Amino acid sequence: MFSRMCLRFPWLSPPFISPSTSRPEVLRSLLTGHKFRQLFSSRRRIKFSQGSIKFLQTLCRISVPGVPVRETQPPSKFLKDKKVVPQADPPSAEDVNHLYQLIDQSTKLVVLTGAGISTECGIPDYRSPNGAYSSGFKPITHQEFVRSSRARRRYWARSYAGWRRFTAAQPGAAHVALASLEQAGRINFMITQNVDRLHHRAGSNPLELHGTVYSVICLDCGFSFCRNLFQDEVKALNPKWAAAIESLDYGNAGSDKSFGMKQRPDGDIEIDEKFWEEDFHIPTCHKCNGVLKPDVVFFGDNVPKERADKAKEVARECDAFLVLGSSVMTMSAFQLVRAAHEAGASTAIVNIGKTRADEFVSLKVNARLGEILPRVLNTGSLSIPAVH
Known about the structure:
Blueprint: H1 33-41, E1 44-45, E2 61-62, H2 77-81, H3 93-104, E3 109-113, H4 116-119, H5 142-147, H6 149-167, H7 173-183, E4 189-192, H8 198-202, E5 207-208, E6 211-218, E7 224-226, H9 227-237, H10 239-250, E8 262-263, E9 269-270, H11 273-278, E10 292-296, H12 305-317, E11 320-324, H13 331-342, E12 346-350, E13 363-365, H14 369-377, E14 386-387
Helix pairs in contact: 3-14, 7-14, 9-10, 12-13
Binding site for Zn(2+): 218, 221, 285, 288
Function: NAD-dependent protein deacylase. Catalyzes the NAD-dependent hydrolysis of acyl groups from lysine residues.
Active site: 210
């Protein structure tokens, strides 16, 4: 599922949703060899619960020998009050053990992550029960961006206004857990649908299937450069906008001083049309004066062939394929799960709610990633302890 972040600009601070502090005492020999294959061939289903629960929010540190501990900050009151992450029951000891077995018995594990890993950091997704689609939001399409200067002006105005809060997001417990598993040699290859680079900040370097908002590219000549430089150029062309964004933090929201900007309940920024229509100017390409867009795959566009081919290659060659926080509704993601399944790999999904691949994956768990992954690190022979 392509997130998410191209138009959604949440009020971000560094939340860190902690895992449960319980340690399941599961012996490594509980499910091994033939029993493990029997378990997965039964295509176990764990049904999504609609119930509401409260969970403890504390700081969490994951330590691995030789891997520096990354400090986090507590979540802001804004994020505590928002339903960015869909509701789900805490993962059971059985859920943790099944996921542990998949990782422990794999020698060529491929992981695919989606928007669900970033919702726990305060970045809204699209398709979850609390996602953008539920409020009637429609993301910009590639075709709309290319053909309409008005659409580009609207996109970049909102994107510029939301950039500071977007980049304030910090990696969550799940990001750090995956980076720890990588450095311990338990993950062979990682692919992400996300464009937020939270994996990179946690210490991973995944294949970015849908690109990243941290780069800007020219549609005419292909020249690309850093998004922060683009932000500086926008500021130089629109000096009053910087003051307006500051005003949004402490001034009168919706006033002319703030260019009509308001924070919406879901974290997006609403801007009065008259301001971005008349008073906002977009930089052009340094090389050819062409049209600039974020280096991401918008809805309606295709993943670059070289990138798609690489992802399919690793999916076909893996012995286990694990989807984390994705409904795999986009064809680019669904094809990877299907390719791994057809090649005989064990397939599993951890996601809150239904996914497009539920009918054929071997294991499906409904759980928050920040709760289940750190517990997996504590299980059996992985020997990667989580310190609370």
